[in-house]
Amino acid sequence: MLTLNSVLIMLCGVTIAAFSQILLKTSANQEHASFWKQYLNKRVIFGYVMLLISMLFSIWAYSGMDYKYGPAIESVGMALVAILSCVILKEKMTKRRFAGTVLIIVGLVVFCL
User: What does the pLDDT look like over 51-91, one tens digit per residue?
Assistant: First the structure.
């Protein structure tokens, strides 16, 4: 059983998780005054809150779908993080990263057929 609502909820959770990973990466790229400020700053705390929210979305989505669909939908997050890192963090999209992103998307399409 797979409902459109469950897929949309899962995709919202995946998107939130992808943005939280970008936020955590931006915090890791900054210099911090102390050990504690490295782990207890606004970006890190908000990033982990976003991860918690994405986990709650996943739990909510699993209530309306079979468990076999969850990992397939969550794999979109890896492709989304690669794209967001290029757009937001200005990282280069290498041929290898591009090929991996395409393989993830193709694998998802094949799984859903």
Answer: 999 999 999 999 888 888 888 889 889 999 999 999 999 99
pTM: 0.86
For the chain, the domain total comes to 1
DSSP lists the bridge partners of residue 65 as 2
| Parent domain of 63 | 4-112
Q: Give dist(CA 20, CA 18) in Å, integer.
A: 5
Query: Read out DSSP for the chain?
Result: -B-HHHHHHHHHHHHHHHHHHHHHHHHHTS--SSHHHHHSSHHHHHHHHHHHHHHHHHHHHHTTB-TTHHHHHHTHHHHHHHHHHHHTS-----HHHHHHHHHHHHHHHHHH-
- Using CA atoms, how far apart are residues 8 and 57, in angstroms rounded to an integer? 10
Core vs surface per residue 17-31: b (16+ CB within 10 A) or e: bbbbbbbbbebeeee
Tokens of 25: 């990466």
